[in-house]
Design a protein that fits this description.
The complex is a heterodimer of chains A (about 120) and B (about 110).
Chain A lengths: L2 E3 L4 E5 L4 E3 L2 E3 L5 E7 L5 E7 L5 E3 L5 E5 L4 E6 L8 E8 L10 E3 L3 E6 L1
Chain B lengths: L3 E3 L3 E4 L5 E7 L5 E8 L3 E10 L2 E4 L6 E7 L2 E6 L8 E8 L9 E2 L3 E5 L1
Parallel strand pairs in B: 2-11
Antiparallel strand pairs in B: 1-3, 3-8, 4-5, 4-9, 5-6, 7-8, 9-10, 9-11
Chain lengths: ~120, ~110
Amino acid sequence: AQSVAQPEDQVNVAEGNPLTVKCTYSVSGNPYLFWYVQYPNRGLQFLLKYITGDNLVKGSYGFEAEFNKSQTSFHLKKPSALVSDSALYFCAVRLYILTGGGNKLTFGTGTQLKVEL
Amino acid sequence: DVKVTQSSRYLVKRTGEKVFLECVQDMDHENMFWYRQDPGLGLRLIYFSYDVKMKEKGDIPEGYSVSREKKERFSLILESASTNQTSMYLCASSLGTGGTDTQYFGPGTRLTVL
């Protein structure tokens, strides 16, 4: 079974400060990890993904995430937060299964990011 | 850009009604998915389809069925809507080349069952 944990329901950051949104995963095998963002009353937008290779992944809107295998984490980061970054962020994991249609994503419960002036 | 559209943004139905939620993607994607999103629970997979007329149950299929008659269209059906099916429903699609696929989401349908 695969699972994802986002330990913080909400993260508050001042504009201009660095932000981190935490994600840890549990999967038996090599994980594929994703971050999505959801703005109010909108669907999810893809931010970035880790498949293999460099542990630091860069994505849209200045976001990046670091894959840490020993800590089973994939934290989302941004050096300088903007008020417009305020949104709901989801981490997701997939274990590629060769048989059937097994490419299922398992999502975390989401972290609400609030960036204030 | 990939575009995934859903037939309604907001829907209000009565208990016992049959409800159809439609999803269309315009990028010739093989895989399509239906999720429901509830506060504190994140997204949970209801059904997915990896080919026309093919479907597989996700984590919470009870009370739902799906139909995929054409590659671009994936329908979610609530045979007899109940109040505990009040939720945000999100459709997604992906290319289907393997586990590294990115899923692209529609804007969602907020369904209220009275």
